Amino acid sequence: xxxxxxxxxxxxxxxPLGRVVWAVWRQYRMLRRHMRDAEAMRDAFARGASGGRAKxxxxxxxxxxxxxxxxxxxxxxxxxxxxxxxxxxxxxxEPAADFKSETQVEDADWEEIx
Length: 114
Prior knowledge:
Elements: H1 2-49, H2 87-90
């Protein structure tokens, strides 16, 4: 009779309780792993934004900035000169462009349903 009561207690109390404890422990481990991964991602992003170097070393010395690899006069940073044009200079210089107006294209005709 004692064995039967032990089996009942084991299958209906201890086994479900063990499953609940295991599920909670598994969720706790997953939460810790996700938090650790998020912190590592934040640190990697901070290192990438600062160029992979620390802002200051232990001595308080700030590292020297590197020179730009591309000069300012290369690419989009080219020198230009603004030229002002007055309306008296453009009168009669070029004929006006032809403009042809078109009607609006519609995809569907709407009908009211009664």
